[in-house]
Amino acid sequence: MESGIWHPYTPGIGGNEILIDSGQGAFLYTKEGRKILDAISSWWVNVHGHGHPYIAECIGNQAKKLEQVIFAGFTHQPAENLAKRILEFLPGKMGRVFFSDNGSTAVEVAIKMALQYFHITGQKRNKVVALQNAYHGDTFGAMAVGARGPFSEAFKELMFEVKFINPPYWDGFHPDSRPDQGLKMAEILFSQGDVAAIIVEPLIQGAGGMQMYPSTWLDEVFSLAKKHKVLTIADEVFTGFYRTGLPFASSHLTTKPDIVCLSKGLTAGFIPMGLTVCQEFVAEPFYQKDYAHTLYHGHSFTANPLACAAALASLDLFELDSFKPKLEIILDAQKSFYEKLKRLFPHFLPRVTGTVVAITLNPNDGVDYTHKSRGLIYSYFIERDLLVRPIGNVLYIVPPYCIEIQDLQNLHNSIIEFLESN
Ligand SMILES: Cc1ncc(COP(=O)(O)O)c(C=O)c1O
After folding, report:
1. DSSP 8-class letter at 148
2. Is 235 considered catalytic here?
3. Which of 55, 101, 272, 395 gets the highest tally of CB atoms within 10 A of its CB?
4. Alpha-carbon distance 82 to 312, whole Å?
5. Domains annotated on the chain, with CATH
6. Is pTM, for the whole model, over 0.70?
7. Nearest CA owner, ligand 1 atom 8
8. Buried b (16+ CB within 10 A) or exposed e, 364-386
9. Annotated catalytic residue: which of 38, 101, 235, 368?
10. Does residue 264 have an active-site annotation?
11. Of 101, 169, 264, 338, which one is the catalytic site residue?
12. 211 CB near ligand 1 (under 6 Å)
């Protein structure tokens, strides 16, 4: 398209994009009649698929009533309702909800909350620990706590220093099979007394290559962090809202995080929004009505009522009696697909967590975002009207929960055909 748009993550700023006219359920449609299966829920956001009529109706109704209001000094019912429901829905005892605009800003807020918590309580802790291969977004703070690589190369001297520890990744068969230096490193770093927070993508590191690690390991890291009074941040921007089979990846943990970041599935792909949710004790030092204790962060569209209406509607859909049985069908199908991949292609390190299945082509090359396999995989599938957008040499699927089982099985078969022919 020659319209002057500069597309994201697109070498040469773009020019060959497919013009999508509409979306319904698990499919995207072009005016020329192409029907493309969205196997990655459009960057993992469309949990209920496209064009869900109930969500559209709720947004429409809200738009006729109140589309936006400044969120300092004012509030509105959709935000009040959403905060209450999210606090009930999240595991653990979360106490406060802070609104922002997307996943990156939810992470920025979490980092600021944690650092300022120690600043205003007079404790000298200003270091952040994160996981190797992490991705937390593209704004500066979120980028700093992510792995250094092509995304951040041009800015590497401007980012604050972060210490990275290694989770024990699946080798394709056993979640715990790699030697674990991460725990030892965490203990060393936490015991130095200057670490404010550890931030993780719990159980699945998405953009870092769908790398998966066990909840038992994270439980140990979080309890070590608690022992050393380090705040724990779970970035559930990708893993939230049933991606791992349970409502949140943190639902698998015994030691719950102090701060949780949400976005993507939160509004089911209709309107961007981010939330940073924290336990009451994190918010407490900010309660003094003193400018020095104020969290100076906010966005023009903070808690946009239409986005809140979308999120509330999406939560309603999760509560339908039909949702859990459908989710179970998807979980079973993904598990069987993983078993098959493990039998046929063990060398591609197949892995599964909940609704997410991934494999790594050319695993000896590591996960490489710029890997030559990327173009090959993408073209193969898009020519067959399947939207499968690999992360370099990592081929993965993250289907919307509304996908028909037959469509999911056809997708599985296409992936197996691709692997057999390459
Ligand atoms: C775990 C995680 N955190 C944060 C982000 C950033 O979210 P956004 O793209 O909405 O800024 C992403 C995006 O992929 C993500 O996967």
Report:
1. P
2. yes
3. 395
4. 6
5. 11-51+321-421 (3.90.1150.10), 57-317 (3.40.640.10)
6. yes
7. 103
8. eeebbbebebbeebeebbeeeeb
9. 235
10. yes
11. 264
12. no
340, burial (CB in 10 Å: exposed 0-12, middle 13-18, buried 19+)? middle
The two three-digit tokens of residue 338, written as one number: 């993983």
CA–CA separation, 411 and 333 (whole Å):
11
In the numeric block, which tokens belong to residue 127? 């270091």
The answer, yes or no, to whether any atom of ligand 1 lies below 6 A from the CB of 201, is yes
**Contact at 8 Å (CB) between 393 and 365?**
yes
- CA triple 127-131-135, angle to 5 deg: 100
| Rounded-to-integer distance, Cα 316 and Cα 350, Å | 34
What are the DSSP E strand ranges found in 325-385? 351-353, 356-360
- What would you measure as the largest C-alpha separation in the chain, in angstroms? 65
Residue by residue, pLDDT tens for the chain (422 residues) are 578 999 999 988 888 899 999 999 999 999 999 999 999 999 999 999 999 999 999 999 999 999 999 999 999 999 999 999 999 999 999 999 999 999 999 999 999 999 999 999 999 999 999 999 999 999 999 999 999 999 999 999 999 999 999 999 986 666 656 668 899 999 999 999 999 999 999 999 999 999 999 999 999 999 999 999 999 999 999 999 999 999 999 999 999 999 999 999 999 999 999 999 999 999 999 998 888 899 999 999 999 999 999 999 999 999 999 999 999 999 999 999 999 999 999 999 999 999 999 999 988 888 888 899 999 999 999 999 999 999 999 999 999 999 999 999 999 999 999 999 98
* Residue that has been written with the tokens 């599938």 in this structure: 381
- Token pair for 241: 């809202």
H-helix or E-strand spanning residue 167 = none
Closest CA relative to residue 166, chosen from 185, 182, 189:
182
Q: Where are the beta strands (DSSP E) in 68-126?
A: 96-100
